[in-house]
Write a structure and sequence with these properties.
Elements lengths: L2 H15 L2 H10 L14 H8 L2 H9 L14 H7 L3 H8 L15 E2 L8 H9 L4 E6 L2 E6 L7 E3 L8 H5 L3 E9 L7 E7 L3 H8 L4 E2 L3 H4 L5 H19 L10 E4 L4 E4 L19 E9 L5 E6 L11 E4 L6 H13 L3 E12 L4 E10 L13 E6 H8 L15 H11 L5
Parallel strand pairs: 2-6, 10-14
Antiparallel strand pairs: 1-5, 2-3, 3-4, 3-7, 5-6, 8-9, 10-11, 10-12, 11-15, 13-14
Helix pairs in contact: 1-3, 2-4, 3-4, 3-5, 4-6, 5-6
This protein binds nicotinamide-adenine-dinucleotide, magnesium ion (3 copies) and zinc ion.
Subunit structure: Homodimer. Homodimerization is essential for its catalytic activity and protein stability. Interacts (via ANK repeats) with BLMH.
Family: Belongs to the Nudix hydrolase family. NudC subfamily.
GO molecular function: metal ion binding; NADH pyrophosphatase activity
């Protein structure tokens, strides 16, 4: 074995054994060991996760190791920690105290403070504060600029009150209070402002280099996880305003209340003014999205819509209908789209999907029949894929027979979770 190979082996052994002092010492001399893989394709972090060594994992993390690296089975160190039941390490690797996966659009950096929505005085003081952040939207698109860290990334333009003065007083601006920052002691408030005015005029001096994002998909997938979470909230509420301008009960004009979270009918005597009416509040559409597992446990079914990029297959999905449980919606949609009958259904995780305002409810379910007959109106093709084929697609192997949905979609997580559930470690 080469000297370098021996050094790496000593480093990986220290990780396996939880020897955090040796890890620190070796890193201070050769930092490049940090994300290196051994012969089995595992990094030091994965080994600490496998064996539950918290302190050793923390040393690697604080040294800046990359938590996204995957082994040959497409598993990150966090997946390994979850599989072996080391939840304290899984939490450390997620960087949060919650156990939910950190999926795009789901991160909440703001405390929504719904109790302040009707406190006009407090809102006015926040609006005037120099710390307050304003996000600008036009036709549901946020004002963004190219990201500082990576070229494909974009970031939200966070404007200050001086930059939006004329918009704040303008009658063509809609304002939504989003919340206050959780992490910052000063708790700066954030507002979304939607303007109907021509963006080219607005952009001239606001923020050089900024632009309104052209297309929500795939544009919004280029935001950082922090920004994406804020946009999920703001865009869904603004989309509701743009679609529900008039009272759904009687068609009269409405006024905006509760800092952008309510629209109240202006016609005295309207039925919507008595009792609680859900038409007055922002709407959310529940959608079930499911990975259908073969009865043999070794394959899963994926389908493709005509609009998907060539080669991409993803989980089946569909809107929950009125008067239906999630389990019934999963069984009905799978039956409609693929002709396959489903038995047990297990809920896993959800994702906000602000196009315009869906809540994706992610499930695994087990098929009881296997013959596929697709609904050609919605699905072009559906197939059973083996675990190995999913792993190849996940690590973008040359032999991969299909392309995974993007990592920002919950479909990607549902597939990854299935791979993580197997004992092939
Ligand atoms: N995040 C992800 O990974 C992911 C993956 C797949 C789909 N999605 C989202 O889920 C949504 C629903 O999936 P689908 O299109 O397969 O659903 P679907 O299978 O129920 O079929 C869509 C059709 O259902 C009808 N429909 C019923 N209720 C509706 C409602 N409330 N709003 C709009 N149309 C309704 C419409 O005719 C529509 O064309 C998609 O629009 C997409 O935005 C997200
Ligand atoms: Mg569907
Ligand atoms: Mg359908
Ligand atoms: Mg449907
Ligand atoms: Zn009305």
């Amino acid at each position: 074995m080469s000297v370098r190979g021996e050094l790496l082996q000593r480093f990986l052994d220290a990780a396996s054994g939880g020897d955090h002092e040796t890890l620190s010492l070796m890193l201070s001399q050769s930092r490049e060991l940090l994300d290196e893989r051994g012969e089995q394709g595992w990094t030091a972090l994965m080994l600490t996760a496998r064996n539950g060594h918290y302190e050793a994992a923390r040393v690697l993390l604080t040294s800046g190791c990359d938590t996204r690296v995957t082994n040959r089975s497409g598993q990150t160190a966090r997946d390994v920690a979850v599989f072996w039941g080391h939840t304290h390490i899984a939490r450390l690797l997620t960087g949060t105290d919650t156990q939910e996966p950190d999926i795009h659009f789901n991160r909440e950096i703001l405390d929504r403070m719904s109790d302040r929505r009707s406190d006009g005085e407090w809102l006015a003081s926040r609006r005037a504060s120099p710390e307050t952040v304003f996000l600008l939207f036009h036709a549901l698109s946020p004002l963004v600029r190219s990201g500082a860290e990576r070229e494909e990334q974009i970031e939200l333009c966070k404007l200050r009150s001086t930059a939006v003065q004329e918009l704040l007083t303008g009658s063509r601006t809609l304002e939504v209070f989003l919340g206050v920052e959780k992490q910052d002691d000063g708790q700066p408030a954030w507002f979304a402002l939607s303007t109907e005015d021509d963006p080219s005029q607005l952009l001239q001096d606001k923020d050089p280099g900024s632009f309104f994002l052209q297309e929500a998909m795939p544009g919004l997938l280029r935001l950082s996880d922090d920004d994406a979470g804020v946009v999920a909230q703001a865009r869904s509420v603004l989309a509701w305003h743009s679609r529900y301008r008039f009272c759904p009960t009687c068609g009269s004009d409405t006024k905006v209340e509760e800092a952008g979270y309510k629209r109240t009918c202006l016609r005295a005597g309207c039925r919507s003014l008595q009792g609680v009416h859900n038409t007055c509040y922002p709407r959310v559409d529940p959608v079930v999205i499911m990975l259908v597992l073969h009865p043999d446990g070794k394959q899963c079914m994926l389908g493709r819509k005509k609009i998907f990029p060539p080669g991409m297959f993803s989980c089946l999905a569909g809107f929950v209908e009125p008067g239906e449980t999630l389990e019934a919606a999963v069984r009905r949609e799978v039956q409609e789209e693929s002709g396959v009958q489903v038995g047990s259904v297990q809920y896993l995780s959800s994702q906000a999907w602000p196009m315009p305002s869906c809540l994706m409810i992610g499930c695994h379910c087990v098929a009881v029949t296997t013959d596929i007959k697709v609904d050609q109106n919605e699905i072009e093709e559906a197939r059973w894929f083996t675990r190995q084929q999913v792993m190849d697609a996940l690590v973008k192997d040359k032999q991969a027979v299909f392309i995974m949905p993007p990592r920002q979609a919950i479909a990607h997580y549902l597939l990854k979770h299935w791979i993580g559930c197997n004992a092939n470690l």
